[in-house]
Design goal:
Layout (H helix, E strand, L loop, with lengths): L2 H11 L6 H15 L5 H4 L5 H11 L7 H7 L2
Helix pairs in contact: 1-2, 1-4
Length: about 80
């Protein structure tokens, strides 16, 4: 699962954004705004499915998710 999809699923599970597609678009927009000199595609690599599921199960229902920080944590 790609990093942006992990964050997107957490945002959806937390009811912060309605759809996974909208959430992934938001993650991309935040990445491009906050990390001007970095390449989104280089960052947005696949993560092992078990690790992705673990992240989603532990973060996926938080009442607040700091997307910028989440992006940094997945670097």
């Amino acid at each position: 699962m790609r990093k942006s999809a992990i964050i997107a699923q957490c945002l959806v599970n937390s009811n912060l954004i309605a759809s996974p597609e909208e959430a992934e678009r938001s993650v991309g927009e935040i990445f491009r705004k906050e990390f001007l000199t970095r390449d989104f595609d280089d960052w947005n690599q696949n993560i092992d499915d078990a690790a992705a599921e673990h992240i989603i199960s532990t973060v996926g229902k938080a009442s607040r998710i700091n997307v910028r920080r989440f992006i940094e944590d997945l670097w």
